[in-house]
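Technical note accompanying the year-one report. For the benefit of new consortium partners, we illustrate the data format agreed upon in the data management plan: each record pairs a sequence with a structure-token string. No post-processing was applied to the example shown here.
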Amino acid sequence: MRIDKSQLESFQEQGFLVIRQCLDLKSRQTLEHLFTKIVVNRTGKTFSAEQFDHWLSPNKAPALFWAKLEPAEYLPELDPLLSNLRQLASTCLQLPATNVTTGLRIFYKPAHCGAAVEWHQDEAWQDPTRYQKQLNIWLPLTDTNAKNGTIRFIPKSHLQGLQTHIASESPGQPLTLRIADPVEHSGNYMNLKAGDFSLHHGRMFHASSENDSSKGRLSFVVVCQGPVQLQTATRANWLADAARKLSSNLQKTIKG
């Protein structure tokens, strides 16, 4: 799976790229099977809090399911797809494919109550002493649009550098981060068909709205990262700060 020079230049300038009809039916069916196995049936593994979570809507209904997976441990059939995507990521990150590692995430927003995700940059989740080049590939398995909570990007925002992040305090959400300063731009909605996918830079501003449609919105994210580069921290560990705040708020709730 490759992109041409003009596509690479567009990614470097805009910070994201849409690839049309490159995720074949067999790959989509394999991913759907993984979703059914892990999220619906909860089979194959006992989940820890770090591997599986869900957000609650105001009426306490599950609003977003999230799972963090090591692909080969679950479905070796994904290896060909991940190999192709790793090659694509290596071109965009300008790294040898052998230096790119991949992880897999599941995001499912149920119909009518799927939660919004606030503006953030994926790189903000990294330990500030262990930098890695990062690119994420978003694979929706259903058609996506503004109504069902598709992902949206702010073009060229990756060029603004890494912004300060704080804990998101939206009701029902577990540990998550958002950009601290207000983001005024509404963003470009990714209206994709099943079989399309998008990829974005680790510093791209992105978010998604609620799923207000009558069908669930299922997507996978392949997290592609380069080798760890040890460095002296020049910022706070926002993820650790958010975890402490979440723990403190939970203790207050228990005591209160």
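Partners are asked to follow this layout when depositing records. The chain has a mean pLDDT of 84.
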